[in-house]
Amino acid sequence: MNILEIANLFLKDNHTETVQKLGNGHINDTYLITSKSRRRYVLQQMNRRIFPEPQKVMENISLVTEYVQAKLHSEGGMKTLCFLNYDGKKYYTDPDGGIWRMYHYIEDAVSLELISRDEDFYWSAVAFGGFQYMLRDFPAEKLYETLPDFHNTPKRFKDFLNSVKADRKDRAKTCQQEIQFVKSRESFYNILEESHKAGELPLRVTHNDTKLNNVLLNADTGRPLCIIDLDTIMPGYSVTDFGDSIRFGASTAKEDEKDLDKVHFSLQLYKVYLKGFMDGAKGIFSKQEMTLFPVGAKMMTMECGMRFLADYLDGDVYFKTQYPEHNLVRARTQFKLVEEMEENWDQMEKAIADIL
Ligand code: ADP
Ligand code: GN1
Ligand code: MG
Predict the structure, then answer these.
(1) How confident is the model at residue 45 (pLDDT cuts 50, 70, 90)?
(2) What is the pLDDT of residues 185-204, one digit of tens each?
(3) Domain covering 118-355 in this structure, CATH number
(4) Domain topology for 3-105
(5) Domain boundaries of the chain, sorted by first residue
(6) Are strands 99-104 and 92-93 parallel, antiparallel or unpaired?
(7) Contact between residue 111 and residue 18 where contact means Cβ atoms under 8 Å apart
(8) Site to substitute for ligand 2 among 47, 124, 156, 209, most atoms within 8 A of C-beta
(9) Where does ligand 2 bind, in terms of residues with CB under 6 Å?
(10) pLDDT band (50, 70, 90) for residue 5
(11) Above pLDDT 90, what percent of the chain?
(12) 51, 57 Cβ separation under 8 angstroms
């Protein structure tokens, strides 16, 4: 079946007019569909290798979007993704087992890859902080853990060491310095898991993939319109949602910038995001959680860097890549950001102390 035929299953009466590729996600295949009546939709094929149980992912998304939808009516002007049904379900399984879903395209919105105006980062932070706020009473036990250990950094580190050892593509010789960078920080990786065990870091319902291009901003006003990419909603830590946004957005360059001289951690953007995240979350975080925000930022950057490097060693089987060193280039930007976070550590902590 081709994409047009699949889109028509959701739209019925052969209503699809055009199909275009959409966005820069690393995981799913995403298309913009225009119907004959000029309505626009997103058709997405889920990545089956990453999501072995897509039905459970879709159940999580349904539960959360329905819950959030009800709250949005009373609490704010944002939208939530609205899925179309096919045969009574929010997805279609093709004859090869591929899972497809279709939802409304959010018009007049932008999805940014890099911050050029502080206020865009502020509003993205308000959106993600608000997401935590809206889900503060959501019964987490109703959610499946669809990607176990997704932000369990010690586990990610073990997986990384296995990739180094296996060295399937004989690439380890091209990235010895980067491998050492990851190994030399081993004692850092347990901090969040240990804080959780000590009762200092609660499990909440979190988004878990809070990068800038996963929030749509109003193209005219810059205000947040919709949080997207809901596949990873699971129980998690507030500090990792905070940290993943910093990893991607508080950088002066794109995630895959080859020229490391252009890649810097921006303390200014970190502070902007912190303010927005706190404003959005309306005081739900404990002092202990907030104290761990800098750790969350460095942890997510380190974790993502080791995931990119492991995928480079494995032969680019997880993240989409455009050229053979793409994952290595991405890992290098993450490590550059980590170095600069370490240099700015006192200031990062002070920014938290100032608001406590
Ligand atoms: P992935 O898991 O591959 O990152 P996403 O769900 O994030 O997939 O979609 C990829 C990109 O498509 C997004 O970053 C965004 O730019 C665009 N996009 C997705 N959904 C919408 C939507 N409803 N309206 C507008 N743009 C969208
Ligand atoms: C992936 O799907 P996307 O592109 O928004 C990944 C995140 C990484 C991110 C790095 C399910 O996010 O965990 O942080 O790439 N998503 C999944 O850019 O693994
Ligand atoms: Mg995405």
Answers:
(1) very high
(2) 999 999 999 999 999 999 99
(3) 3.90.1200.10
(4) Phosphorylase Kinase; domain 1 (3.30.200)
(5) 3-105, 118-355
(6) antiparallel
(7) no
(8) 209
(9) 25-27, 50, 209, 211, 214, 229, 231-232, 255, 304
(10) very high
(11) 95
(12) yes
